[in-house]
Every structure is written in C-alpha cells, then in structure tokens.
Amino acid sequence: MSIHLHQLAAALYLLAGLVAWTGMALRSARLERGSVWLLAGAALAHLGAFATLHSLEPPPPLTDLPAAVSFMACAGTIFFLAMLRRLRLDGLTVLVAPAAFVGAFFAALQLPEAEPAVVAGSGSWPHAHVLLASMGLAFLGVSGMAGMLFLAEHRRIKAKRPIDAGFPLPTLEALDLANRVSLAVGFPLLTLGVIAGMIWVQKSQGVVWSGSVHEIWSVIAWTVYAVLAGARFGASQGSRQAAASAVGGFAFLCFAVIGVGLLT
Amino acid sequence: MRIVLLGMNHRTAPLDLRERLAVDDPAPVLQKLVACDEIDEAVLISTCNRVEVVVVTRSYDAARLRLRSIFARELASDSIEVSTSELDACLYEHVDGDAMRHVLRVASSLDSMVVGEPQILGQTKDACRVATECGAAGPILGRLFQHAFATAKRVRSETRIAERPVSVARVAVDLARQIFENLADKQALLIGAGEMIELALESLRKHGLESIRVANRTPERAQELAARFGATAHGLDGLTELIAEVDVVLISIGGDDPILTVELLERALASRWGRPLFVIDIGVPRNADPAINELDPVYLYDIDDLASLARKNADERQREGVLAESIIEEQHQRFEGWLTALRAIPTIKHLRERVESIRVDELERALRRIPLDDDQREAVEALTKSIVNKILHAPVSKLRREAEHEEGIVYLEAARALFGLDDETSDEE
Lengths: 264, 429
Fold this sequence. Notes:
The complex is a heterodimer of chains A (264) and B (429).
Chain A: H1 2-26, H2 29-54, H3 65-84, H4 93-110, H5 125-158, H6 172-205, H7 213-234, H8 239-263
Helix pairs in contact in A: 1-2, 1-4, 2-3, 3-4, 3-5, 5-6, 5-8, 6-7, 7-8
Chain B: E1 2-9, H1 15-21, H2 27-34, E2 39-46, E3 50-57, H3 60-74, H4 84-90, E4 92-95, H5 97-107, H6 119-133, H7 139-158, H8 168-179, E5 187-192, H9 195-206, E6 211-215, H10 219-229, E7 232-234, H11 239-245, E8 248-252, H12 262-269, E9 277-281, E10 298-302, H13 303-341, H14 344-369, H15 374-402, H16 409-419, H17 422-428
Helix pairs in contact in B: 5-7, 5-13, 6-7, 7-13, 8-9, 8-13, 11-12, 14-15, 14-16, 15-16
C-alpha cells in the first residue's frame, strides 16, 4: 500500500512540475494555480504513504536513505504549501515540484528492497533523529530553491528585461522572506536532529561519537547550516548574498546527505 | 432591416470637436431618434475619445440623413451647428456587418487610443443601459451589445491584450510590485517635482503606498508638495538618512550632476540590512548615477528604461490584437447567424398556423360525423396535436438551423413553396 501511495505521490509531483513549467512557458496563471493544487494532492498522497508505513508494527524508523529522502521531499513540500498561505510563492512550484518528485521517485524505486535498519534498544531516538534532521534539511532545500528563483528574478530586474505578467513569479521580497523563514525554522530542527542522533549513538553503542562517515558528514552539514544562519541573522547579510549562500548550502547538503549516503 | 453606425473618434476628430459633441445624458437624443419613423432602435456611445450612434432602421437613406442632422445640430453642446465640411472630415459610417464588427471592437477595447484599456467596456455598458432604460434599445441592439460584452470578456480572458502596462507610471508600479510583496507597508521618497514623477507617485498610491516623504532644494516647494500628497517635507541635506529609511525613491530634480551617487547610496545602504531599494529616475539629465544599479539591493530605472518597457508592452498588445481580431470575427459570425436566423421566424410561424388551421378544420369536420363524449374528444384533440407537432418538429428544427447561414434561404423558399405560404409571409417579411 505504502509503495503504491509513494508511486502516486511521485506521479502527482511530476504532473505538478510539468503543469507548472507549461504554465510558465504559456504564461498561464491558471496553470500555475493548477500546479499548486496538484502539489497539494501529491503531498497528501505522500503523507498517506508515511501514515501507512507507520501503521506497521513495529513502525520502521525511516533510517534508510530512500525513506529519509522521501520524508524530506514530503516535509519540504508541506512546509512550502504552509508558506503559500502567507506569501505569494506559487511560482516557486516550478522548482519545488520537480525536487519533490525526485525524492518520492527515488523512494518508490528503492523502498521495496530497503532493509529495515537494526535499531534495537534505541527507543524513539532513531525516529526523532531522522524526522527532525530530515525536516531541517528539507527546509534548507526550500530556502535554496527560493534563493535560485531570487537570483533569477534579481538578474532579470537588474537587466531591465520586460515583466512577464502572464505568470506571476514571486516578488523578490517574498522570496527573501521564504529564504529567511526556512533558515530560521530549519536550523533549530537540524540542530535537534543532530542531538537526537548523538543520543541514539550513545544509547546503541555506548559512546557519543563513533567517528562514522555519517556522523562526520552530519556535523559538517550542521556547521554549514550554522554558518548560513549566522551570516543571515548575525552578520546582516544582504538578500542577494543570502540567496546565493542558500543555493550553495543546499547544493553542498545534497552532496553531504544523498551523495555520501549513496557512496557509503 | 439594417444596422447603421455613424460616429467620430480620437483618430478622425480633434479633441475640441469631440468635446463639443460629447453628450452627458444621451436619453433625450435617443428618444428623439426612436420617435422618427425610420429608426427602430438606437444606442449612443459618448466618451472622451468617441461619439457614436448606432441604429436599427428599415430605411437606410432616411436614417443616414437623420443621423447626420443629429451630429450637426442636436449633439453640439454650444448649440452652434457643426459645418458639413467639418463633419465630412470627421465622421465615419459603418453599415450592417461592419457596424456590428465595430461595436464588438469598441467594447473589446481594440479601437481605443490605448488598446486594451478597461474603461471602455464600462462606458459601453452604461450606453446600453441608458438606451434600454429609455426604450431606445430593442431586441436587435440589446442582443448586439450583450454579444459585444461577451466578446470583450473573451478577448480579455483569451488574449493578453490588457496584461502589460503601457504607461510609464504603470510600468513603474508593476516593477515595484515585482520587488515588494505589499506596497502598503512601504515608504516612498519624492525628490523634486514634475508631471511624470507625480503621475508615477499617484499610481503607486493607488496601489496601496501610503507613507510618503518629499525632499526639495527649496523648503517652500517641499512644503507645497508635501501638503498635496499628505507627506512630510525635508531638505536635501539629510538625504542619506532619508534614503536609509525608505523603499522607493522617485527623483526628478534639476541640475547637471547626479544627486544619487554611489557614495551616497553606499552610506545609506549601510544601515538598511540589505532591504531592496527601488529608484525611479525621471530627471533629464539623469539625477541618479547609473552605477548605483550595480549595488546589490538597488534597482534603478530611468525614464528611458521605463519608456522602453512601456513601448515593448505596447508592441506586445498590438501582437495580441491579431488574436483578438480573430475572436471578433468569430463572434461577429455568430451574431450574423443569429440575425440571419430571425428571417426564419415568420416562415415558421405561418407554417405552424397553416398546419394548425388544417388540423382544427379537419378535426371539426370529423367530429361532426362521429359522436364522441368529452373525454373522447379531448383524447382525439391531443392525438392530432401530437401528430402535427411530431411531423413539424424535424422541418422546423432544420429551418431554424439552416436559416443561420446565408445559403439557408433555399430552405425557407422551399418551405414556403411546399406549404403554399408565400402569400401569407410576404407581408410580414
């Protein structure tokens, strides 16, 4: 059931992405709105997939890479949809939907063969680690995508190219705010996720730091995130630099989490 | 029955003549028109860019003369007759298909000075409402104008004719709305004065911008402008601090050297926390150093940039106009179809009457021979009616359908010949 819902979610994410890009090509605000509804449908199916997975006894801790990546896609999409209630970010669907599709598709391909991780004696800490860290990384992903669109729009307005009124892209202010909110919410979640991971290691192996590749890259990822958040909120970084940093940080974390996860 | 339109617009008549002929209350003119024998229906459209009268008439030549006399004598606000030569130079006339097409184009804003502007649709609706209320618009013009409103809606929804702003002031507003999520919580600084810059500020105010500051070289002028816009007045000496606080700067102030320099902006930006600053420079020569556009949070547009965007948008509207014209043509064909189908009504009416009279006669004759009680009579009556309706259903539907095309006249003639209706229908047609 879960895998079928994952497949449905992936198909809807793909459809949402295609509709959003078609809307942008045809400059159709109607298609843009349609893509948001499709994205919401996809997120609902995705949530259903995780709910089904969670109904198993005992519930799998989602510690394998496909499940974690899929959860990131789901959490990032829901966070984006929540921001849509306050900010006119509909145009960002052109990036969010394809990214969510990649996450859900990756999980739909891998989940049937995924071996349940051995987490005996660790209680809820593996769960807490995966959920919190995945949400933190997913929100940084949204921040990176908002940054990408910000840079594109910033260049367009600076270059004095005509306004494309048919497909209302988000304003620079909305994209900057999305970037800021994503960082402000995502960084504490990742921090809590890293702490939960350390407690999990301590409970299962008796040490706080085992020196595994996953641990090393988790700390590097947290440090990168800390630098981004510090620059944004501490050093009053400008909007364009913040957008560029978010894009760079997102690219690095994609490598740190997914790349390293696949290589090791 | 013919539709005739006589009028003048911004392309054919100078403003002073259009002003003289503009009508505030068209009802008396319309009532006078429909009181004439030759005119059945009339609608008068009077805006600052056009004065047009469209009528339905059974006597084309008489209606044409009447309309010209209305333009020459009745419409002039100063009661001085407009000369024939003046009218000849300015008036245009459209008849039947051209008149219908023209009404559709006017309502869809394809004939406007600024193609795609939205006001004309409301003005056309007002003209139709007044004509309907005073009894001047009947079934033909009423239907034509409703069709024109539907056409205008299609043009607006199926083309991008009205999407892109074509005035410098509106382009500035659209740019501001690309940068800022909400103009209501933003502050603007007006440096200097001038018609263009004040228009831009007015457009920004219409879109929610409320907090305005005015800076000028002379405090008196600053006070005067501040009073007009409900703003606070400042001198030029505290410009850095002012720019540090505002989000939009509109500048048009005399002088050869730029007022907004990179150094000044860098000082102001230091305390802005990277907030974007939209600078609109309408001064000639320019009042802002073009190099400030290189500063990250600064978006600078000068008058040439805004005019160039406005021109590109106007070109885009013209291109969209081609698509809009195809919608007009399609809608015009539909209306022509409806109008042509009206020809079938007398034939169908008489066909039904002829068959009904045969049914009634034959039924009476039969009932005289066969004694039936009331229930039986009713049953036979219903039976004959049902037979007649079923027999007529197919030919009447076919006549209605075919009558929408010009070639459908063959079917009407055939029906008249087959049922011997010629004598009965000729009078009414």
